[in-house]
Amino acid sequence: MTAPPGPVVLSCGEPAGIGPEIAGSAWAALRGEIPLLWIGDPAHLPDGLPWRAVDDPAAAATVAPEALPVWPMAFGAPRIPGTPQAAHAPHVVAAIETGARMVQQGAARALTTLPIHKAALMAGAGFPHPGHTEFLARLSGVPEDSTVMMLACPALRVVPATIHVPLARVPALLTAARLEAVIRVTRDALMRDFGLPAPRIAVAGLNPHAGEDGRIGREEVEVIAPLLDRLRAEGMDLAGPASADTMFHPAARTGYDAAICMYHDQALIPIKTIDFAGGVNVTLGLPFVRTSPDHGTAFAIAGTGTADPTSTIAAIRMAADMARARAAA
Length: 329
Prior knowledge:
This protein is α/β, with parallel strands linked by helices. The chain is 36% helix and 17% strand.
């Protein structure tokens, strides 16, 4: 399958974190495979890393085998590993905006975002969004509730129906409308972005043992099961509501292409146990492909040269694969 034109764009993320280092390591690993274009201040890159400024994303493919292609932005302050600076915040936001615009305009094939520090962006740029996902939804003009977070690795794809909310609020948030939207976005993405013409989706219950027919909670019998029955009648291949404690062993994982879970830890514990270093965060429901490594800024090791680029490399490869699938659809 032919790759779509343009590079995979890397937005720099928080300069005080490990982003500059893992960008360099990812380029070194992928320079003969996938052209990258890093957006940020080249003064923040590790000493000795070969880089070259470009003024056209199309030039990245020619530059990438020999040097990291860079779309340069002057941040106005040096990088201090482990110490975020308010002066950097507006430029970090601008790097994300620039990358999203390149992909939307067709100059790049996909966007991979390196980790940001939301408190620093709020303090330095008044950034009002909980994270990348909501910001990218606004930039692309889609409603926030039409985007879905997926965590993926070769052995498992999981989607939490609720994300960064207190556990006590989860039952009230698990409405049939919300869960239906998550299922539909996930199914559409599996078909469009992962090339699965008839995706199989497993849906977890909320309560232990999926509620045991209402004896350990009513959400399964009152909300989840009726919704799944209605969607099955449309032709969707849906299993569940299933007991979450039996969904993630190797034999069970062969029975579905993605698992939809009811809350954050129900989804993230299994994938981080199976592949802690290689998990990828994918935003489903955007008009362009966006992935990110499944870790944060790691201030404690920034500048030490010990950051593991595995998740970033996986995120770039997955972005390229998703872009090919979209191009072929």
